[in-house]
Design a protein that fits this description.
The structure is a homooctamer.
Chain A lengths: L5 E6 L3 H4 L7 H18 L3 E4 L12 H6 L4 E2 L12 H9 L4 E6 L2 H14 L3 E5 L8 H13 L3 E3 L1 H9 L7 H11 L1 H18 L1
Parallel strand pairs in A: 1-2, 1-4, 2-3, 4-5, 5-6
């Protein structure tokens, strides 16, 4: 994945839809989505996000998303279930001039799979981030992952996107990338904390 | 999926066969099947259903299916395990003039996979609805899903069919579609109920 | 359990709280609660139900509960988390003159365990219906069940209450009880449907 | 699958190897293997079976296999891990003149996957029966299933083979096929027993 | 447990009820029940068994039970859900003059727990065999086990009853006991088969 | 539980020990521990916390704990595994004059169970908070919970402590308590966010 | 637990019986048993071990046990299933003059539960180490744990015994105890390795 | 797989990264990695291993790896996340003149998937060993396995590599291979121990 050719599309991360998610913990799903946004901000990947009927039961976009991604562009829809059916949304993607799409959303089998399959058919290279997405059952997201993968879409998880964007520790902003790993993976955070204290203890 | 080209095939949703299903709750399987039928009725998708030896141990078709799909056509078989081996069944499909088949049934690896693979070979575009189908073990439906997917059949779940048929909230019958989501996803129903009460409380 | 000495207490079965339940499917929880209400109606067991702040995020009582239990008495609370801290609630229980309490609610470890432990201490015989209750994690309801059981409360499930109320098929309303088993246990419904068809086939 | 073109290959169903199986119950694995053998006998599918060092720790072939398949041909090996590396074994397959291979064995990822991939490469059509096979972990058989499926091998389970061989109830030996379903699927056996009693009760 | 003071009570092992069991495999449940019957026959423990409405949807007693326990006494009921509510049943137990009851049945929380709690209250020493019993959910049997255990009933599994009856290999019928372990525990059967072949190989 | 008689003891929530926890997600464990600290701060419950060899591999106390509980008292130990073996620790507890102890820590079966059993024997009323504790396996914490419960210790989870401290919405600081529920239960947070937006939409 | 009053009893850790264990990984069970033996050796706790028919299918004692516990005493049995039925075994325990018994073995519900219940009745204080024991199913060990716990036996895991024996880091042999934690808990070993390297890196 | 054309690449098996692994037990992961190294040593397959920032929180390479593979070549990196981005690493692979790569590492979706996809694109035949690799969640490694498999990479487990390297028992070093199976599969070790004792017993 080339970060310079990529756009991050965050689709329908809404508090009402979160209530229907059963294939991943809501807390983990929200944390991964925030991590994804911060990764994109750090890597200079444009972010476009959208919501399905945010004034209805689907609920508002999770508030911590906009906090994490101050540069993200919001595109409203006119009722379309698939964001790719919305002209403004596709135009916003085209305006970036990029051809690699990183997608995550709720539900995986609908809000991710529909635009992913359409964009793939339109010539984009598509990555579906499974653990920043959620669905009503594991059976649903397993089927969606296989359906997308067999259509040529890359099934990945947030740590893949982090590492594909990061690529090397030999860069000036390495520390920022390090802290992103800690935010994404709770155990990594503990590892880093233990590491710090061990070094402190060794040298005091 | 184009609803105007689609036919829904419900295969052997019989009360005796339900007793052998171990990869999904029987209550969920039945509810998803009813939802699938209502989606098709709402979207104008013809429904054809069939049973394997309904007077024997396999048992009768679940009664709530016919209630939910008053326009569905029943095609009896002459003992064939695969409905696609039955001439009348194939003719009933051909009579619709449609080339996209949405299939669900019990067992996934037999009553769905056999006709799905045959129809796919005959040039149809086939969707297998995993969570309106059931099998004797998760190993069985996992293997069946992979086998079908690698043959070009689309593995989906009921919420995919609902959303592919619904496609947009910007339509006159949006409210009916909304209630179908509530029927299909129990948590969505609770979300909608909470939403209604919150609005009531805000304006009283 | 003596049905003639029992009261059914349904505590905070609210659509907002349902969203936080992770130890049982929401659909199953709701179906079991409805079944419990119908069992009580059939057995002449008085039902008292209550809600915690139904105008706030906790949401309204699930609507199908009042439908299933037309004779149930609703007692509002004044903010108390434990219904047993509310005087009106305890008085409503005392007014029945009965000393056996069947309790279910959301969350198990709070809305059930608190009043259950208090009532047990006040001399009542208490049954906690685990599968018509829900909690934020399996760890939470496991701990609550052990805590209550070690305090002398009987941990049971809905089928226990159904069978303790039913007690014998040798009664005039046996058919009604039979249909309650079918409503409670989806597989039992399928068994009964298969049975009916087998007999029909044998005699036609 | 055409039963008239098929051979059943049972590979290393040995009591020592069974001890290392963790992705399926040993009892289920043995029962499915016996069912597979009976299906083949009934359908006129030749059976060839083999063992890997049966005098060593791998142990003897499960004794109920030979009972169930009196016409099966045993081919000893000279130490080869993959039966397809053994000339006698391949010759025995060739001698049948058939080009469709149904394979099951222990371990899935070795004793099944190796000859399956080799035979597929040699032009055979191969079915891998996942639930009459076993492996040291679910991760191992999941990987093996995906590896084989992506190479063109059909991943199936025993009920697929039963139904593909059976194909129709409209045949003289229907009753025998019926009893094979009962043997393979314990719940189906209970369904049939219930059915019989319901009819008896209806007509007495 | 003293086998000379024990009676085995097998309660409602009926093919219709089996369809509702979700906390244990039906095949395992049936095999354990048969093993329990054979253990009792071998240890001289009287067996009393009963059914709840065997002409209705609950279905007939599993046929292999009577085969395994030719000396078992059947006591019909008059509609009572708890066998202990049936006078004939209690009299049959009393007629044995024994005071230790080993109970198993479907459902654990009803058909086992009700008579177990009643008999315990009547002064009997009661063992509840969890894995020769079944219930509609794991939550149901977990609750039932805790409820019974806290009332003084011993929660055990079939291997406990086998070993408590067997007690020592230093007896004339040791070989019969050995084969019962193999029947009960499929892996033990494989161990014994491997053992036999290893010895054969060593001495040939 | 009377908050005015309670002390919260947080035992060995150290980043090295977190790496060994397998019965609960590390992220959830840390979030629950922080919630517990905030609950205590809000309810005026004194907090005492301690660490086992924080300069060694066990690692430092999780940093967000001290942030959440600015008034908490730290008591160092002199190598004792059980904090109750440390005189300073017991004196710190005694100095509060309170007799109800709420304990959580890593490992449940050691750092919680040892002091819990000792304090219980010394006459304290003890609550063990299972989901703000962690252990090397589910088997370990299941055994520890049963061991403690049978000794008279109350097994609870964080939502119990929150609700026992909160007790009623009819209090001036109700909003603060409301936000604690949202922090503790991610789904509750989403419910509240949806609720707010629904009301906004209704009145705009 | 007072190590100076304790004896460790290792019961039937035999390679044939291991094949029947399904509630814990065999590798973990063996590693925990070895750890238990080393803990006892380090703490000066006498070890007595025994086997049930080691020349038959049950197989030999796991060889690494004797390596880890050079001072352990082996007591042969005369066919008794329960080691407490064997006079020599009870005498060997009595010869130690100690009254606290730490027991582990295969099967939990038989080889551990039988002598545990007998010794408890004889006035011993008994600890059952669940994760150095194994049984044919989780249902079996869950039932056994509850049965033993309700009889007054302490259900524990290996880390409890390690910590109860260790008790404080403030002792001369602290390093040995540290390495025992690493051996018992694989993640702890990784923590310690990371710690060492972090310190090395800090000071180089 | 042709062992004579193969190289084993072990990627980032570091003690800090191990703490973040949730899709496989750390003990199993380490044991499989050691087994993989020993298999390669025995089969004459060159081993190249590497680490990502071993002086930082990721931690040192697991020490038992170098012990098991004395001939392995270590290649340091200059910060690159993907080893294939490091020129020295690719050169070391090219220096072997072999074109088949067996890869394992932590994380599967990053440290294995990245170089695997790159090497595959560069014309190598790649095997990804799933159970000698680890990732932050099962969802992560499931997605990675599907992504790699659909790109043409072979998903396998350690027993596949062992058997593909071993190929036949009819070789001089058969005993060594036999002991490798025992090391890799704990149950196989028990089977072999039982076998040995059975033969000993038969001939004494």
């Amino acid at each position: 994945m080339d970060p310079n050719d990529a756009v991050l599309l965050l689709l329908d991360h809404q508090t009402g839809l979160f209530q229907t998610v059963n294939d991943i913990d809501v807390a983990t799903l929200r944390a991964n989505t925030v991590a994804l946004a911060k990764i994109a901000e750090q890597a200079g990947i444009p972010i476009i996000y959208t919501a399905s009927e945010p004034d209805g039961p689907n609920g508002p976009i999770m508030p911590e998303l906009t906090e994490a991604a101050p540069n993200a562009i919001y595109v409203g829809r006119k009722g379309e279930v698939s964001s790719w059916d919305n002209e403004d949304f596709v135009k916003a993607v085209e305006a970036t001039g990029r051809k690699t799409l990183i997608m995550a959303g709720v539900w995986t089998s609908v809000c991710v799979a529909f635009p992913a399959l359409q964009a793939q058919a339109d010539g984009y290279k598509v990555f579906a981030v499974m653990d920043a997405s959620g669905d009503v059952s594991k059976m649903a997201s397993d089927a969606a992952m296989l359906r997308m993968a067999n259509a040529g879409i890359q099934p990945v998880t947030t740590n893949t996107i982090l590492s594909e964007s990061h690529r090397t520790w030999n860069r000036e902003d390495a520390a920022t990338w390090g802290s992103l790993y800690g935010e994404l993976v709770p155990e990594y955070q503990a590892v880093a904390e233990s590491y710090g204290r061990a070094q402190e203890a060794a040298t005091k």
